[in-house]
Amino acid sequence: MFYNRTESYRHSFGKPAEIFIEKVYGNNIHFPCCGLLLDVSPRGARIFTEKDIFEEGSLFTGVFKINHEKIKAQANMVWKTPITGGYLIGVQWTKDQIREILIADELESCIEIR
Length: 114
What we know:
Elements: E1 11-25, E2 29-41, E3 44-49, E4 59-66, E5 69-83, E6 86-93, H1 97-110
Antiparallel strand pairs: 1-2, 1-4, 2-3, 3-6, 4-5, 5-6
């Protein structure tokens, strides 16, 4: 079996991190929303939100912390599933190598090696 080195790994949090989501409609009208970052990788994430502000292909900005590093990333909603109390959404971060490295480094520093 070959290992696919281009495939992103995901890190799940014991206690989900908060994410502040800001969606822009038309002429700079912002629609802020908070959610929980259930898991994250350098290329995407799974988020829980109580509000249904996303349509497939929606673009938004998310701000969240991994360890003590505040990360701001633009994302595209890929899928959405309604669940009790809200929605699970899958997002793909827009291409940014520096942000991908930052997320990977922060995830590595919070994983304990035994």
